[in-house]
Every structure is written in structure tokens, then in C-alpha cells.
Amino acid sequence: MLSLFERKKNKQKIDTSVPISEAQYVVLDTELTGLDEKKDSIVSIGAVRMTGGRIELGNTFYRLVSPRTELKASSVIIHEITPSEVAAKPGIDTVLAEFTEFCGDAILAGHFISIDLSFLNREMKRISGKDIPNPAIDTFTIYEWLRKRNKSRDCFATPFAGYRLYDIVKCFEVPVNGAHNALMDAFITAQLLQRFLPLLIEAGAEDIGDLIKIGIPFKGGDHFNLSGEFSNF
């Protein structure tokens, strides 16, 4: 396993000139024992691959993880993963090796992905001393960037309180069905990104270099990525 991480220990060099309609994406979500990065841990990882706007339904990743910290009742209510379901599952070291293999050189995407990355990178650093090398984009900051340029369109006219994923996707006619789990949320987020890509192209974003600037993962307290001001646009 460590050899895999060693192969990924340096930041990936990507061709930023690849059109966003042709780029490789892995849209991901995690379920956690809680949101405290120091005290909580990962319970499951779900992801789906995309090539441009095409979601590869046959190319998904879903693993339950035996968490390194105790599952709390408050989190079980949300993701419905019980202690008995994960007791015999592999630990995060094994699952993270499989997940990074699945991701390859793709761009990572998620809604408020900085939360997922904070937990994933904590484990990566523990194992290999380095963060996950893939560039990452946030559908929340992409939504905000598009909203500032499409205020006359219905789904951008009024910002959503809290910017919850399920509220935004309903406006874009993304169906929300089935149980709440990491793979389902990754698939829902992938459909949202699918809706955003043609709007980004229409607004002048051409390649993944542009997309990475627009989709900078949002972190609480950061405002630079909500200003809608990027030098190339």
C-alpha cells in the first residue's frame, strides 16, 4: 500500500489546457462519525467517474470503513450506518489505497469538498506524509461563480439559504431518490456538475485551468472565492 502512496507523493502535473468538456473527473462524498477533524473519522467513501459531462454509471466506488473513532448516535441518524455494519470492514488505510487507485489522475469534485478533503488528507498525511495530489473543485463555488453571471435565470436569481446540495439540485431538476449515503450523494453532485459544465463554457470558461480557478474549494471564513472576480474572466 505504501508504494501506491509513494507514487503519488508529489503534486500531479496536469495539462491545464484540456477542455472542461473532455476532462476526467471523480465526484466524491464521504460519510463521517462527525465534523470534528481532530476527533472524528471516515465511515464511508463514495465516488463516480465522469468524462466531461458524461457520468460513467458503471464506474463507481463505494466502500464502508471501520472508523478509527466511535460512531455516535447523532451521525448514525444522518447516514444510517451502524457500528455492526462497519465492525468487520477494512480500515481507512486499505480503503484509501483503493480510492486513490480509483481516482488516478482525475480532477476531484464535490459539494463543499474541503470537508471531505480535510479528513482524507489527514489520513493521507498519516500514511504517506503528503496530501492527495489531485486538483479539486467545489460545486458550491462553481454555483456561486455562475450565479453572479446568470442572475436572470431562475436557479440563480435567489441564493439558497445555507446552499445545501439537495436544495440546489432540486432547482436544476436533479432527482433526489434513495437512501442518503456517500455514493448517492456523489451521484447527485455529479449530475449537478453535469448541469454546470455547459453554463461554464457559455460564460467563457474553456479549459481545466479556468475550472480550477473558478472551483477553488470553499473553506469557512474564506471569501476570495465568492467574489466572482478572476483575472481570466
Please estimate the helix content.
25-40%
What is the residue-averaged pLDDT? 86
Percentage of β-strand residues? 15-25%
Q: What is the CATH topology classification name?
A: Nucleotidyltransferase, domain 5
Which radius of gyration do the C-alpha atoms yield?
A: 17 Å
Q: Would you list the SSEs in sequence order as H and E?
A: HEEEHHHEHEHHHHH
First-to-last CA distance? 42 Å
Low-confidence stretches: 1-10, 221-233
Q: CATH homologous superfamily - what is it?
A: Ribonuclease H-like superfamily/Ribonuclease H
The CATH class assignment is Alpha Beta
The total of helices stands at 10
Shape: globular
Strand order of the largest sheet: 3-2-1-4-5
In total, the number of strands is: 5
By secondary-structure content and strand pairing, the structural class works out as alpha/beta
Q: What is the annotated CATH architecture?
A: 2-Layer Sandwich
What about the largest sheet? Answer: 5 strands, mixed
Count of distinct structural domains: 1
What does this structure look like?
With 233 residues, this protein is an alpha/beta fold. The chain has a single domain, classed as Nucleotidyltransferase, domain 5 (2-Layer Sandwich), CATH 3.30.420. It has ten helices and five strands, in the order αβββαααβαβααααα. The protein has helices at 2-7, 73-79, 83-86, 92-103, 113-128, 139-147, 154-157, 165-171, 182-202, 208-214, and strands at residues 24-32, 42-51, 54-64, 107-110, 136-138. Strands 3-2-1-4-5 form a five-stranded mixed sheet, sandwiched between helices. Helix 6 (139-147) packs parallel to helix 9 and helix 8 (165-171) crosses helix 9. The protein is globular.
